[in-house]
Amino acid sequence: MSSNNSTRETRMSRNADHQPSPQRPHHGWRLFRRILFIIVAIGVFAIVAGAGLFFFYAQSAPKITQSALSSDASTRVYDANGNVISRLGAQNRTYVKSKNIPDTLKAAVVSTEDRRFYQNNGVDPIRILGAAFANVSGSSLGMQGGSTLTQQLVKLSVFSTAASDRTLKRKAQEAWLALQVDHKYSKDQILEYYINKVYMGNGVYGMQTAAQYYYGTSLKNLSLPQLALLAGMPQSPTNYDPTTYPATAKKRRDLVLAAMAKNKVITTTQAQEAESVSIKNGLSSIHQTTASTSAKTTKVIDAYLKQVYAELKSKGYNTTTGGLKVYTNLNMDAQQKLYNIANTSAYIAYPSDKFQIGSTIVNPNNGKVVAMIGGRKTGNVTFGLNRAVQTGRSSASTAKPLMDYGPAIEYLNYPTYEPVKDTAFTYPGTDKKLYDWDKQYQGTITMRKALYESRNIPAIRTLQNVGISKATTFLKGLGMTFDKTLTLQNGIGLYISTEQEAAAYAAFANGGTYYKPYLVSKVVTQDGKAHNYSATGKRAMSAATAFMLTDMMKDVMTNENGSGRSAAISGLYQAGKTGTDSYPDDYADKVPDGATMDSWFTGYTKSYAVSVWTGYDKQFQTGHYVSEAETKIAQEIYKYEMSYLAQNAPNTDWTKPSTVTETTQNNNKEYYITGHAGTVADTTSTSQYGSTNTTSSSAYSSNSQVTTSSSSSRVSSSTTESSTSKESSSTEQTPGGNGNDDTTNSSSTTTSSASSTTQTPDSNSNS
């Protein structure tokens, strides 16, 4: 009995030894508590750190004033002297006080932009979480974002809307200022500011002005569906324009109505009835606006302003809601003068109001575009075709210094008296013949004579010797790139704009440095941050090349046989080049002899480079040709404008660089690159084209160049020039000639940018 009891006690003791102690926690529970503690600690740290960072950013937040909240968010544009020349949107705003804003519109805006507007304190954490969930689930109907209406007002009032400025710091400052605004102003005041500030499309700011613009009446006279449309427009005013995109506008309006019904400010029945109303109901065909910037001033700067906005857009700025201050390089006096020359009869007798011009003026020393005009007699059209930057018209012979003679001096060391041949020429591999403007041949002449008389054949022969590759490289240095490989024909016509050409010729003017042309010098965003812009000069050619080209192009205006005599300005040191583009053979019989499609003149001093294009938009329409006499108009525009510009600029001549040597040829002053006084023997047989045409001297394919002495080349040059000049004297242009310098009358001359043989510049060419 005792033995059995002893056994039971032993078993109980063993079982007791194997049972866990109730005081010892399980290992898994300890691990869970530790992880939970770490998570809570991290969370607390994140909250503290986040709060610290928030208040750190808040300390540097910009000040916000009632003036900033109530002012429009328009873009102000200034000229070079700091005078306001345009206020995009400011001229189209009628401010409306809260008491005159319909309650229906207020309800529509709140339902659309911030349903908890009357409950939040300017920042709504619940809204932020709800927006995040709605965006993930797709249940927001596109109506609610994370920012409250007050935050949106702050953003429109003091911050830049550029994508690059959407930072954590900016969002923290925006939230901080929204809290301040909500504390300082009533909800009705905040709504008033918002309704008057938002952009409504077509240069219109504020919903009161939008009511006048779209419906021709005040807000108080609009119906529920009309007010709902206006309330929904600020999210994307261009896409929700009921006159242009009625389908998307209706969809947006109906979403607003649905949001209003969901927010119980209207009934479902009211929403459905409003949705059935046509989106075009009540729309006005005549848009009413007010104007604080005179229409006259707007017309004068139209093309320049359009290019300013294009430049701003390329830099990422939003000109409609950015509240920007834009400082430009515009010389308003020069702009007004150019406008007057183009649009009045006080200077030039234009053949018709349809005769058009495009012109750009550039400062050669920094690339600043100081004036630009994109057309004449354009009526009420604003921001229409800017012919100053169009690249669909041939630059004709103004291309010769850029693609032919400039590269010849730069790469082949041509002197200004280089012998070049003006003899019968057929484009290699074709049966297309090239002619000069007078359809005569002068034999061997100097490069200088070929340039100032603007003879085509010597120019193309020179381009042959240079080679397309090197010529293209030279053009690239002057800011011109092209989609496709250029051809010989481009040597007498590039598809470039007056802006590009003025900037390229500016490099000749300043000694060989290219500056990319630009209009905007500084942008100040709503937060007060200033962004400065300038062009960095890049060496495009040697100082010797720039000087020798300039010296030859002086003769274009001063030589008795120069093609640009009509651009001559007495006593002014200047240089330039003419250009006229003829009609192709299959159309030439439909226009008078000597008629052209395009006429150019690009010239410069040390202070300004001015490029002018003239012609008709529809050059193949009956009567839309530039007569032989009218080719002088481009030169005359240049002359009047440059004469005005020169009044307040120094008149100094170019100084010969040390790398250039002066010599005398045929009693004329000539120049050569020091060490390269002679010329190179004809190497046509080794030309890259394998042509049998006789060319001027070439060094393109030959490494063993034969150099004649300076004296022998002078004799040859002067003798041939003298004899050929006498032979063709009756066909050369007389003083004050028409400038009809490169009309080839050949089917080989292309007439549009769509031609398969002539290449157009790519997107980097400011088209």
UniProtKB/TrEMBL annotation:
Residues 360-638 form the Penicillin-binding protein transpeptidase domain. It comes from the Bacteria. Residues 82-260 form the Glycosyl transferase family domain. It catalyses: Preferential cleavage: (Ac)2-L-Lys-D-Ala-|-D-Ala. Also transpeptidation of peptidyl-alanyl moieties that are N-acyl substituents of D-alanine; [GlcNAc-(1->4)-Mur2Ac(oyl-L-Ala-gamma-D-Glu-L-Lys-D-Ala-D-Ala)](n)-di-trans,octa-cis-undecaprenyl diphosphate + beta-D-GlcNAc-(1->4)-Mur2Ac(oyl-L-Ala-gamma-D-Glu-L-Lys-D-Ala-D-Ala)-di-trans,octa-cis-undecaprenyl diphosphate = [GlcNAc-(1->4)-Mur2Ac(oyl-L-Ala-gamma-D-Glu-L-Lys-D-Ala-D-Ala)](n+1)-di-trans,octa-cis-undecaprenyl diphosphate + di-trans,octa-cis-undecaprenyl diphosphate + H(+). Residues 8-17 have a biased composition (Basic and acidic residues). Residues 691-767 have a biased composition (Low complexity). InterPro entries: Beta-lactam/transpept-like (IPR012338), Glyco_trans_51 (IPR001264), Glycosyltr_51/Transpeptidase (IPR050396), Lysozyme-like_dom_sf (IPR023346), PBP_transglycosylase (IPR036950), PCN-bd_Tpept (IPR001460). Keywords: Carboxypeptidase, Glycosyltransferase, Hydrolase, Membrane, Multifunctional enzyme, Protease, Transferase, Transmembrane, Transmembrane helix. The chain crosses the membrane at residues 35-57. Signal peptide: none annotated. Residues 1-25, 684-767 are annotated as: Disordered. This is Transglycosylase domain-containing protein. The lineage of its organism: Bacteria, Bacillati, Bacillota, Bacilli, Lactobacillales.
